[in-house]
Every structure is written in C-alpha cells, then in structure tokens.
Design goal:
The structure holds two protein chains of two kinds. By secondary structure, chain A is an alpha+beta fold. Chain A has six helices and 19 strands. The C terminus of chain A is likely disordered. Classes of the chains: A alpha+beta, B mainly alpha.
Chain lengths: ~375, ~260
Amino acid sequence: MGDLQSSLIKLVLRRLAAAVGSVALVVLGGLSILGAFLGAGGAGWMFSTWPAACFWVLLAVLVAAALVLARTRRDGLWIALAHLGGLLVLLGGLIGSDKAHGLAGSLLGIEKVPGGYLAIGRGEQSDVLLERNLTTQAGRLPFALRLRQLRVEHYPPKDDRWVLVVRATEYRGQPLETPPQVLTWEPGQAINLPFCDATLTVLDYVPFSRYRPGEKVADSLHPAMRVEFRRGEVRREVWLLPTEDDPQAGVSVTQTLGLDGEVGVHLLPPPRRVKDYASQVEVLDGGRVVAAGEIRVNHPLHYGGYHLYQYACDEEGGQFTILAAVSDWGLIPSAVGGVLLCAGALGACWVYPAWMRLSGRKSFGGQV
Amino acid sequence: MAVKCDILGLLIYLAMAGYLLAAAAGMMKLRRAGGVLFVVGFLAAASAWAVRWYASGQPPVGNLFEVFLCLGAVIWPLSLFCRRVLKAGNAALDAFLAAAVLFPAGFVFSAAGPVEPAPALQSPLLVPHVSAYVLAYMILFMAGGGAVATLLTPPGDEVAASSRALAVYRLVRLGLPLMTLGLVLGAWWGKLAWGRWWNWDPKEMWSLATWLTFLGYLHFRRATWGRYRRVNAAWVLVGLGGVIITLLWANLGRLFSGLHSYAF
C-alpha cells in the first residue's frame, strides 16, 4: 500500500511538473515572439533585465525539479539528460551574461569586461575595448593585440568590365539626395541619363589602356572609355580614364554640356564580393609577444579568458581590422548542455521508443 | 512570379505535377498509381536538387530557393519511413504537401545563379544545421497535416481520432530531436562566427518560439495523459505556424531584419 501511494505521489508530481513546465514554455515562447518583434537589440535588452533574470532562475529551478523527478520514469535517463542539458545551457547563459560579470565584480571583486570591440590599424596594437558604436570605451583587455597584417580575399568579379555610375548632388538649383545609380551599358547603345535630359553612348571601351589618343597618361593598367554626351543638338565626346591617382575617374555631365548643376558619370571597378578576410595578430602580455595567430570568420582565437573574433575590416584598403572580444565564462556549461540536450532529445524521442518496440513492449508511440 | 524555363525549372514543375497527381490518385483511392506518381515526383525533385548542386558546385542549402527545393525532395523517403515504420502519415496528404513546398521554388523565388557565400556562411556547420532543420520542418509539416485531420475527425469517432492523434504525436517525436539538433548546431555556429551562442536575432527568436511550442505540446500531452486531442492538435498547428513564420516571414519580412537576412 505504501509503495502504491508513493508511486501515485510521484506520478502526480511528474504530471504537475509537466503541466507547470508547459505553462513556463508557453510564457517563454510568447516572450520570444515579442523579442522577435523588438529586434536583436530590444530582445537582448528585454531578456537581460532583472525580471527576466528572475524568470531564467525560476525556469532553471523548474528544469532541475524535472531532472529530479525524471529518475522515477522508465525513460528517465534520456529525460534527465535532456533536462540536465537544458539546465546547463541556462546556467552557461547566466554565467556568461553581462549581469553575471557585473555581479562578480561587485560581490567577489573579480573584474572582467564581458566583451567589446577592438579597432586596430595595421602594425598598431590596442587593448581598448569599445562598445558596438566603436567610439565609446567599454573597458580594457588584460593583454594587447597587434595587427601584423590583414588579408582580404575577393571572389573574381562576374563581369570584368568596369561599371558606369551616375552621381548627382544638384540639378537646376535643386539639391538631390539620391544614391548613385549604376548604368547598364553596351558599346554603341544610347542610355538615358538620370536627373538631366541627356543621353550617354559608349563609343569605345579599352580594357587595358596606357594612352589616350594624342596625350600621354599615367602608366597604369586601368581601362579607358570614350563616351558621347548628347542633349538636343549639343554633342560632346570625352574620355573616362581612371588612374592610380584618381581611380574613380569621373566627368561632369552638366559641365560638359553647359548645364546648371552637379551630375557626374564615373567609371568604377566592377563590384567584388569578399570571400574571406583574416587578421594576423600577435598577443602582447606584459610587453612581450606571447602568442600569434590568424583570426578569421568562424575561426576565433582564444587567449587569456577571451575569444577573439573577426568582426569587420577595411575591405578595400586592408589598413585596419575590427575584432570582437568575448569573455569565455559560461562556455563549458553551454557547450556540454547543448550536447546533452541533443542526446537527451534523441534518446527520449528515438532511442527509447525504438528499444521499447524492439523489445516487444506495448508503449511504443502510445506512451502518454 | 519567377517562372523558370530551364532544365531546373522543368524538373521542378514535373515534380510538382507528379506530386499533385499522386495526391489526386490517393484521394481517389488509386493507391498503386498514387505510389508510382509520388515516386516520379520524388525522382524529378531529387534530380532538380542534383542539377542545382552540379551547377553551383556546392551543397544547395544556401538560400530559400534551395531550401524549398530540398524540402520538396526529402518528403518521399520521409513519408515512406513514417508510414512504414511509425504507422503515421498519409501518402496523398504528404504528396500534396510536397507540391505545396515546391511551389515557392517553382514560382516565387528566383533560381538566379548561386551567390558566392559570404565569409560567415563558409562553415562546415552550414550543411548539418540546414539539413537538420529541413528534415524537422518537413516532418512537422506532415504532423500539421495530421493535426488538421484530427481536428476534422467527427466527434464520436474515437478510434479514428485516437489513431490520428497518436500519429501526430509520433511525427512530432520524430521531428523535435532534429529541430533541437538544428537549434544547437546553429547556436554553436553563432558562437564560432559572431562570438555568442545566442544573438537574439528575430529568426533565432522565431525558431526558439517554434521549438518551445512543440516542447510545450509534449509536456502538455504528458501532463494530461494524452486527453484533449483537439487542444493537442491545435497546439501542433500553432507550432506549424511558427515553422512557416520562421521559414518565410522571418526571412522575407522587412519587419525582421537581422543576422539571417542573407538566407534568401
């Protein structure tokens, strides 16, 4: 009778925990949807407030209770693993949070900046952590980083031909605030120019030009383009010739045709997508180089309690890099928790039912 | 409307036609014909996916067009497994779902040449992360179909209602671990690429909400001894809504711009 009573109590407790758990999951699901509407910044803020922190702690307690109650189930091992995984993920998140770093500083005297961004020029070093706006200082790292080199790789452009771009700031006394417009061009084809009543026709395109007729120009391998502007009876021919000194060769359409305003046509290199970028850095601790390595997207560097990530860089000039530094607190609980969560879910939903079925028990699929 | 007139487009339309005819044959109780047409649709969809892979030189899971193509190609083996092993799912319904998920690939999204992947996308985690989600979503779509069938079961037909509710439960139990895997792999990738397991990105939030909904379904079902079948079915449909929003609205809606905006 005592055993029966005890089993009954455990059963009721498990069901009660499941019911409370489903309510907690609904609440968290609802908050997640609200967070999606708030955007990353708003959601991050909302889930880091003190009420949210209390909710996280309550959720952790609930998951811990489910973990204890899971012992009494036949598939308890897998359920326990899943809940332990969830608990560790929550714990890792709490330990790694900005709030936990703040508490460690005020209660335990452990001062550690949770993270920030480093902007480092080529050949320079820095230990200053900045906020996301890259202007406000967030703190200092206990070590410094020196950028030896920045390597930027591009995909080859889909079309080798340079592109024509129209930039306009003013026309007939009216200021224009429009982004540059790319013109699709073919030799001999007249194109209507935006902002002014004129057409442009590409007469010649020389992919690798060193000279233009009758005049010696800079020694370069930039292309050259001879274009014709036409407006009514007015017709002008000009060369667009980028050089090392002026890589964005431009001609003022308005000036060439004697119009009032500032509308220009520029010949620019074809757009290229960045394939990869990598910062080759040295870690300086106490003034000495203690480590060196390459930081690439998806390939962070770990040193002194921080992971260092490639965040952004000077894609064209390769003169500076921006790295993100993130404290590694909470890393291990989160990682182990993720693995256990997957293992528990797979075990409870796949392995256990399969085992039940193979061993000829009836609860396959029908277990409630 | 992005109608495609190349070999890829023709294969997609052939697959859709095969799936739709299979669904029609299934509804008319022409089982054998339905089965053959379902296989024809699958072969065409799988061929389209293979053609895309050959043309791009990389596993075609990098944008929404490719994801929908993938969804349309995996449903036949999944449906077969679910019907044979789990005794869950319905061939006609699954074939219809396959045609429905191929519609965006055939008519909505452009199949313009594959874009060179951004640095963050060049990760060995891309394929397992997306694959886990593709399989999970397709299984949960099938569960959603079953949930609709449960809700449409006439009151009083306890045997049919019970059997359908059980089939939905089995499908959710098959799909949820895959969704968990996708979520955890995504978090791991986020940690490697951006430094945080969780970035509060709208797509992340929607996928979390969806995962929590299905988790809540399992908890509620356990807490109530599997009673309240209609509530359970409605719960699964809410989860299915989450899947659709995560897949479409969170990617395409301007309301939710974020780190995953390259995924279309």
